[in-house]
Structures are given as C-alpha cells and as structure tokens.
Design brief:
heterotrimer, B: 339 residues, alpha/beta, Rossmann fold, Alpha-Beta Plaits, 2 domains, 5-stranded antiparallel β-sheet, 15 strands, C: 256 residues, mainly alpha, elongated, binds adenosine-5'-triphosphate, binds magnesium ion
C-alpha cells in the first residue's frame, strides 16, 4: 500500500494541484468571500465606537477602544475560514467528488493539506485587510512594523487551526449542516472570552472564570498585545502556544478522520 | 470466461451495513478482458455497493475479489491504477471547468505536464465537450456532466472501466451516444466494462453478458440471448377482423401450441420453433381465409427474465422496454446494434 | 375578511407548528438572544461603573431591554428566512395557488413570527429575572413595553416577508438580516446615548431604533420617555412595510 508513493511521481505537484483547485474555488465564490470579510469589520466599526466609554473603566489597558477591538476581527475571520473550509470539504464528500480523489494514488494527508490551501489564501487576504482597515482608522501597532508581520503570522496560524477544525468536522460527519451547526458554538466561545473587555475588568465572577479558562481569550490577547502593548512575551507565548496546539490537535484529528473517510483498501 | 486471467473475478463477496441490510449477499462473477458486463437490478439491489467494493472505495465484509489480477483488499493501489470509474453521482465540482477537472485528475494520477494537456484535449474532443471545455460545470446539462464523468474516468488510460448507472436521467439521444462510446471503448480498445443499470434495454443493447441482481444476490446470469432463451420462445398474438371469429382462430392455431384468449377476440400462441414459424401461421390463416387485423410478435425480454426469476416486474421500466414489434414487419429497429 | 382570516390562521398555524416540531429552527432563535443576554449583561456589566452612566435598575435590566427588542426583531427576520425557504422548496407556490385571499399569507407569516417571539421573549425574560434583573416600571409601563416589542416584531416580520417574497431564494437570508442587525447595533446598545462619542453618537441620535430602545428602557425603569414617539415611528414603519410586503407578494405572484 505504501509502494504507491514512489510509483506516483511528483507528490508535491499533486498537493499543489489539489491546493490550486481549493484556491480557485475560494476565489471564484466571491460572494462568499465578501460576507466573512465584511461582517467582522462592521462589528469592529460599530463596537469600536459604541464601547469607547469602556476606556473610562479604571484599569482599562488603553485609551483607544478601537485599538483594543481590532484583535477581534482576526479571530472572527478565523471562524469564517473554519466554516468555509468545512463546508467546501463537506460538499465534496456529499457530491462524491471526494471519491473521485480517493481513486487517485494521492495519500490522505496530502489531500488534506491541499484542501487547506484555499483556507490559507482566505486567511491571508482577511488578515491583511483587517490590518489595513485598522491602520486606516487610526489604530497604531504598538509593536511596530515587525510586530505587524508577527501579527499576520499569528492570525494566519489561528485561521489555519480553525480551518483544520472545519475540515475535521466535515470529514467526521460528512455534511455541511454539521459544519454550520458548530458555528453558534464557536461564536459563543468568542464572546465568552476577553473579546470585549480585558479579563481584569470583567466584573461578573463566573464570566471572568469562563473567560480565563477559554483558550480563545489567549488567542485574542496574543493578537491584541501586539497592537496595544508592544512586545509582551507572555501574551505572545500563550497566543502562539494555543494557536499551535489548536493546529496540532485539529490537524492530527483531521488526518485520522481522513484515513477513516478514505476507507479505500 | 474461465479462459485464463479474468479481468474481474468475484467470489462470495458480501457487504453488510451496520443496522442495515446485507446489501451484497455473497455474489460470484467473472468478467473476461474486453467484455461488457451488464449488472442489472432494481433500486436498492446492491449494484452500487458492489461497484464501490470492486473500486476499493468500500471494504467488503467477507469474500474475495480480484480486479485486473489484483486483490481488492490487499492491493488497493494497484487496483486503482488499473481501473477508471464513473460512480452513480456525477461527482463534479460546479465551480471548475471541464478542462480544469481533467487537468486536476491527470495531475493526481501522476501524468506529466505536457502529456496532461494532450490527453485533456483528446478526451474533450472524444466526448464532444471541446466547445464547452472552459465553461463551469455548474451550467452543464445532465448529459454533458455524464460525458465529462466518463472522460475523467479515462484520463489515465485504465484497462477496466466501472460505470454505475451511466445513463440514468439522460434523454434518448444522449443515452444512445453514451452507449456508442462505451461499445467503442470495449470493442475497439479492448477495455473491460462493468456497467450497472436499471434499464433492461440498456443491458440488452450493450452488454455481452448480463448478471441480474436482486436483494444482494445474483439471480440469473448469461448473455441476453441465453437468458431470454431460458425463459422460452417468442409468441404471436393474432387479432381477427371479425371479433367473433376467435373460436375458429384458436382451433386453427392449436396446431402450433396451446392458444390463449386475450379478450377482444385476439388469441396468442407460443412459437417454440422461433420466428420462422410465423410464415407457417400466416399461410394457415390465409388458407382458412381468415382475415387478420393485426399480427404481433412478442419477443421474450429481460423483463420476462426478471419476472421469472424474482416474481416481480422491474418497476418503472416496463414501458420503455416493452419488446413488442408489429409483425410481419421486419425487425426494423435493429435491437442489437453496435455489435 | 373571513377568507383573509382563514388563510392567515392556516399559514400562521403551519409556521408555528414547523417551529415547534423542528429544534433546528427553534433552538437557535432561543439560544441566540439568551446568549446575547449573558454576554452583554454578564460580560460588560463593568460599564455601569463608568462615571455618568445613569440607569437606575442596573446593567442587567439595561441590556435585557436591548435583547428583548432584538429577539422581537429576529423573530420577524427568521420568519423571512422561512418564507424564503418556502419559495425555494416550492411550497409557497402551492400557498399562492390555494389561498383565496393572498394577503392573508403575509398576515399568517406575521402571526407565526409573533408566536415564535412570544416563546423566545418569555425565555429571555425568565433568564433575566433569574439573573437578578430589577423591574421598576408599573404594570402599565410593562404592558407598554410588551406593546413596543409586539409592534417591533410585526415591523421586522413585514420586512422579512416582503424582502423574501421579492428575492425568493434562501440566499436572501443575509440580505434580510444584515440591515436589521446593523440598525439595532447602531443604537446605544452598551451605554446610554450621552456616553457615546464620535460618529456613532451622531448616527445613533438619528437612528429611529434608538428612540424605540430608549422608550423601552424608560418603561422598564418606570420613567417613560419618548413612548408616543416610539409608537408613532413603529406604526409608520409598519404601514410602509405593509405596502412593501404587499408589493413583494405581488412580485411573487407575477413570477408565478
Ligand atoms: N452506507 C450505507 N449504510 C447503510 N445501508 C446502505 C448504505 N449504502 C447502501 N445501503 C443499503 O444497501 C442496499 C443496496 O444499496 P445500493 O446502493 O448498492 O443499491 P443500488 O442497486 O445501487 O440501487 P440504486 O439503483 O438505487 O442505485 C440498499 O438497501 C441500501 O439502503
Ligand atoms: Mg446505485
């Protein structure tokens, strides 16, 4: 069964082909691209202003709520990447396109990585747009130009982790509904974090607890630290750490699910 | 069929679904190289399940099968490189074009860059999609999708082709065109074709041999002619001009076999000697000066075979496979074309 | 008129029946408002400590009113989704064929929206009470609050149905939802209007939803403000959107 690999020339080329298709799909469904891009920005615009009174709370870490709020679109964008990736893959499974791929000599993990290519492109586009919008609305990046690149890297890593989660759900359950059904849960997990207020100023005790145990808080705080604090090694370590953990776990489970799904003999 | 290496060999193949039926319940079959094997059965008979197992996409519960000489369980990748498959759902991506589909498929099959383009163009030409090649598949008609599906199955030049209900939902022209192409692949290129269908006519026209599957078991197998012969002889139905003459008619026809009255004055009699006996009947009627309004020859059909083997009719297909032709008109439709 | 009521009752019954028997439809419409209540009233309560934040009953009550109105609006919007789905599945065509008075169809969907919201509204209210919300308004005030909610729900339902009938595809969902969402969030959601600064203050000041929100918060606090204006705005919106919905229906009729 493993002899096929040497027999199949250009494994990388094959992954690239699957990725190219995935990217083509992403770019051709422009309507689907716009909403995920716009929605977090609308929320950012509204909440960035509506909640500016929050900066008057004693202990609030910055004078500009907009700067504080800019971290959120990156995370919300990642959720949309998860949904888009999962839905795309689930559709392939539902239509049987997946079977077509399964009949080729391509290996499961390669197939998965290729399928995530579109997600990566989506993540890059989104992250850059969010960053530019932030800069255009007068948010300064405390960690400077280098920090902006680190921010993009972190954001893309997070999106990739969520994309693998979407892929995992699609592979596990094989339907688009299952993927979309998880969206409210993800959405809630973002809200029950330090997304709107820093943890130290959240008043309701249980909420603070939930936000502290919610890993999403650390993803947001990692991104946010680059914007409002500068180089905060603790926040960055936690942010990158949880993002990497997310990628490792979801990607690992997704490739296992891919193997089960590809029960070809 | 047992002459040397068979292209497809199946022994005692079983597939059981959890909480489901025994979708495939111990089938045996063998298909020789270059043969078109028609796998005929109603909805839910187990056709697709069999195809999925033979194409290595679904592991069997028990039993053995070899495709192209390779074991479907232990030598999956070799099997896959030998076969092409167009599964029941035309599994296409609506957002890609036909050409993109072909190039992607060719790449994944490990075909070199220059060769990919050549093959894509040749296949597009062959299935008549050259003009539509750069349009997105989402806008294709059902027939175009099926043709692209076939082209995709052929990209890597497989020796054995699996087609799961390739013509379901197609109009008669598209269906005939697909039949022609499949016949050409088998007869000119020596490709082995395993084709499932719910249409008796399709199996009849296209297949060299037919296996009838019902409830996961093969209930009959043979060439269409053999199967029909097993059921018996053709029969002829005679309707006299004078509706009251049926007694006289029956008496006359009793010389050929046991006549049955159909009401409205017509009488049917079997022709154990085949169609050749038709002339004798016409002569006898002529001598008795009995004027005949119509004379209809009934060929036994695979429908009759199915009825005889399962006690049921193959639903929904009776109308288009009714094997009735007015006689003594010649067999103008040429039922077994393309051989 | 009898035929109108007959159609309205039939469509309304089906709409609420579908909601009740399929958790996939009912649960999100209950969980989302609940969740907003938790996230806003719980997570942001510290905002009440900002100097010059004045709302006597407290932050939970402050946010409850927003979520109450939001759930009313979304009850209507979700009905728009259902209409779009009915057009996609062809069921709506059957309705058009069989209904003797077609405007009864809109009324029926609106009734469905109302019943659906009564369920979610009750759940949200109970949750807020459990979380310790203070209610300072009199019984009459609360009746007024309920009235505002019902009218708001009706306005949103007319909007959702009308647009769904114009567009007749499930993709219409985002188009129906977005304006309502934006309108609501361009009101003083988290803090009272005077605490808003910059562009959002200017927008919120002109936003009719702000009037409704402030009136509703006033009623809950027992110190009504702008109630008549809010009623008038909602009634005006209902009248305009009723025409819009009727046009939508006509467009669906023309399309067959
Ligand atoms: N994944 C599955 N899980 C459970 N049962 C299944 C599964 N796939 C098929 N079956 C069952 O196995 C039986 C055979 O199905 P199969 O798809 O092989 O039939 P078919 O002959 O291809 O029918 P059709 O003409 O409708 O395509 C059916 O009863 C079907 O319900
Ligand atoms: Mg089938």
């Amino acid at each position: 069964m493993d002899a096929e690999l040497s027999a199949a020339p250009g494994l990388l080329e094959q992954i690239a082909a699957v990725a190219r298709r995935s990217i083509t799909r992403t770019l051709r469904q422009r309507a689907l691209l716009v909403f995920p891009l716009l929605f977090p920005l609308i929320l950012f615009a509204i909440n960035g202003s509506s909640l500016s009174a929050a900066t008057k709370i004693p202990g609030f870490p910055t004078r500009s709520y907009r700067a504080f709020a800019l971290a959120l679109p990156f995370i919300q964008g990642a959720l949309f990447v998860a949904i888009a990736t999962g839905t795309d893959l689930a559709r392939d499974i539902e239509t049987g396109f997946f079977n077509r791929l399964a009949l080729t000599p391509l290996r499961g993990s390669a197939l998965l990585v290729g399928q995530l290519g579109g997600a990566l492109v989506l993540a890059c586009i989104q992250s850059v747009v969010y960053l530019l919008v932030g800069l255009a609305t007068g948010v300064g990046i405390a960690s400077g130009v280098a920090g902006a690149f680190v921010l993009l890297a972190l954001s893309i890593l997070i999106s990739f982790g969520f994309a693998s989660l979407g892929a995992l759900l699609a592979l596990r359950f094989g339907t688009g509904e299952a993927v979309q059904g998880i969206f409210p849960l993800l959405f809630v997990s973002v809200f029950l974090s330090s997304s709107s207020l820093p943890r130290n100023v959240i008043k309701v005790h249980w909420f603070k607890e939930v936000a502290t145990y919610n890993p999403v808080s650390y993803l947001i705080e990692g991104v946010r630290s680059l914007i409002i604090t500068g180089w905060d090694s603790r926040a960055l370590a936690l942010g990158f750490g949880f993002a990497a953990l997310l990628v490792i776990i979801t990607l690992g489970l997704a490739s296992a699910a891919m193997k089960t799904r590809l029960v070809r003999t | 069929m047992s002459d040397g290496a068979a292209a497809i060999e199946v022994e005692e193949l079983v597939r059981e679904f959890r909480k489901g039926p025994r979708a495939v319940d111990g089938i045996d079959l063998a298909v020789s190289p270059g043969e078109i094997y028609g796998f005929l059965g109603p909805n839910g008979a187990g056709k697709s399940t069999t195809v999925l197992m033979l194409t290595t996409l679904l592991p069997p519960t028990s039993g053995r099968a070899r495709v192209g000489g390779f074991d479907i369980v232990r030598q999956g990748s070799q099997v896959r490189s030998t076969i092409g498959a167009a599964l029941q759902e035309a599994a296409l991506d609506p957002i890609l074009t036909a050409r993109e589909h072909l190039l992607l498929q060719a790449t994944l099959q490990g075909i070199g860059k220059a060769e990919r383009k050549v093959r894509a163009n040749a296949l597009l030409e062959r299935v008549g999609l050259t003009e539509a090649a750069d349009r997105r598949v989402g806008g294709y008609s059902g027939g175009m999708k099926r043709r692209l599906d076939l082209a995709l199955a052929l990209v890597h030049g497989p020796r054995i082709l699996f087609l799961d209900e390739p013509t379901t939902g197609l109009d008669p022209q598209s269906r005939a065109a697909l039949w022609e192409e499949v016949a050409r692949l088998a007869h000119d290129e020596g490709m082995t074709v395993f084709l499932t269908t719910q249409y008796l006519e399709e199996a009849d026209v296209l297949a060299d041999r037919v296996g009838i599957i019902d409830h996961g078991k093969i209930v009959a197998e043979g060439t269409p002619a053999q199967l029909k012969a097993e059921i018996g002889s053709p029969s002829v139905e005679v309707s006299p001009v004078d509706g009251g003459a049926d007694e006289l008619l029956a008496e006359l026809l009793a010389g050929f076999g046991t006549p049955t009255h159909n009401g409205r004055g017509s009488v049917t009699v079997p022709l154990p000697g085949g169609e050749a006996q038709l002339a004798e009947i016409v002569r006898a009627l002529d001598q008795a000066d009995l004027h005949v309004a119509s004379l209809q020859l009934h060929q036994p059909s695979l429908d009759d075979v199915f009825l005889a083997k399962t006690g049921r009719k193959l639903e929904g297909t009776a109308a288009e496979t009714a094997d009735e032709q007015p006689a003594p008109g010649a067999r103008g439709r040429g039922r077994r074309r393309g051989r | 008129m009898r035929r109108f009521l007959y159609v309205a009752r039939g469509v309304g019954w089906r709409s609420i029946h579908n909601t009740l028997v399929s958790p996939a439809i009912l649960l999100p419409s209950i969980i989302f408002p609940l969740f907003f209540l938790v996230a806003f009233a719980g997570g942001l309560s510290r905002l009440a400590d900002v100097p010059s934040f004045h709302y006597a009953p407290g932050y939970t009550s402050f946010q409850y009113v927003f979520v109450f109105l939001q759930s009313a609006a979304f009850g209507g919007v979700f009905t728009g989704f259902a209409v779009a789905r009915d057009f996609e599945s062809g069921f709506a065509r059957r309705l058009l064929l069989s209904a003797p008075r077609r405007s009864g169809i809109i009324a029926g969907y609106a009734i469905g929206a109302l019943l659906r919201w009564l369920i979610t509204g009750t759940v949200v209210t109970l949750a807020a009470l459990i979380a310790g919300m203070n209610v300072d308004g009199t019984r009459t005030d609360l009746l007024g609050l309920l009235g505002l909610g019902i009218l708001f729900n009706f306005v949103a339902a007319l909007w959702g149905c009308g647009l769904a009938m114009f567009l007749r595809t499930e993709q219409a969902g985002a188009v129906i939802q977005m304006p309502v969402f934006v309108l609501l969030f361009l009101a003083p959601v988290y803090v009272p209007l005077p605490l808003l600064t910059g562009w959002i203050h200017d927008v919120a000041r002109l936003n009719p939803a702000t009037v409704v929100l402030e009136a509703a918060r006033g009623l809950l606090a027992g110190s009504p403000v702008k109630f008549a204006l809010a009623l008038a705005l909602l009634a005006g919106a209902a009248a305009l959107l009723a025409i819009f919905a009727r046009r939508g229906l006509a467009s669906a009729e023309r399309a067959g």
